Amino acid sequence: MSTGPRIHVAADFIVGGDVVLPEGPARHVARVLRLGEGAPVRLFDGAGLEARAVLVEAGRKQVVARIEAVAPGRGESPLPVHLGQAISKGDRMDYAVQKAVELGVAAITPLYTEHGDVRLKGEREAKKLAHWQAVAASACEQCGRAVVPTVHPPLPLAEWLGQRSEPLRLVLHPGTAGALERSEPPSGVALLIGPEGGLSASEVEAAMASDFSPLSLGPRILRTETAPVVALSLLQYRFGDLDGSLPHEAD
Questions:
Q1: What's the half-sphere exposure (Cβ side, CA atoms, 13 Å) at 223?
Q2: Which of 3, 38, 98, 129 is most buried (most C-beta within 10 Å)?
Q3: Residues 65, 66, 68, 74: what is their CA dihedral angle, to the nearest 10 degrees?
Q4: pTM (2 decimals)?
């Protein structure tokens, strides 16, 4: 793929066809980057396709790219992980969503828990959901993924637990001896992260009753937005596509 900014556009990619960039990316391309006609851009549709394109119009009212080539995207993990993340306030939730996407998560469900201090309803919930989905798309632009993970509407924890069918189900539970003992990569993982105050004893019991196993990340208590970063890194290293190899220095 060519150089140039990488932009998420939910559109059909047809070689020779034109795509109108959404308002936000268009403004960034034309006014911030000050790219003009003929400048290369990279587009991805959020469903797995990438396109090499060139700007054919870069005005204040509209920015249009013409598709030159289409190819399957790269960057998807072979390990599908569904993250159940207790909702936290403001930037902390944005950070959790962003980093989870960078680490290859397949889906995210924000969760209402007993100790969680965020409750969303109606229009406020819809706005938050749209915001988190935009955070996920932006993270894909940065990290090179062509599939934007779905951020599902928030659910009460009990309802999310009842929907789980992944072969490997893990609940982050500090103070336990839980570890990743499985040797073969599972076909799917459900990962449950509690709020800043932790999951209640009854919530942990409910997770265990839903075939979740405890996972400990060491002796230190991690913040709710840090925990998914560490847990997903371990899962991707053990079963996914983080190989942990480092380049050797030349003699």
A1: 9
A2: 98
A3: 40
A4: 0.89
Strand-pair category, 63-72 with 18-20: antiparallel
Instruction: Give the whole-angstrom CA distance, residue 61 versus residue 27.
Output: 9
Residue 166: closest CA among 147, 182, 151: 182
Spatial distance between the Cα atoms of 163 and 31, rounded to a whole number of angstroms? 45
Token pair, residue 91, equals 């930037």
Helices (H), the chain: 23-27, 91-102, 122-143, 157-162, 201-209, 227-239
Find, among 93, 215, 97, the residue nearest to 150 by Cα: 97
Which residue type, as a one-letter code, is found at position 180? Answer: L
Q: What stretch of H or E contains 40? A: strand 40-44
Picking from 235, 237, 77, 76, the residue whose alpha carbon sits closest to that of residue 168 is: 235
What does DSSP say about strands 168-172 and 40-44: parallel, antiparallel, or unpaired? unpaired
Our measurement of the distance from residue 117's CA atom to the centroid of its chain's CA atoms, rounded to an integer in Å, reads 23
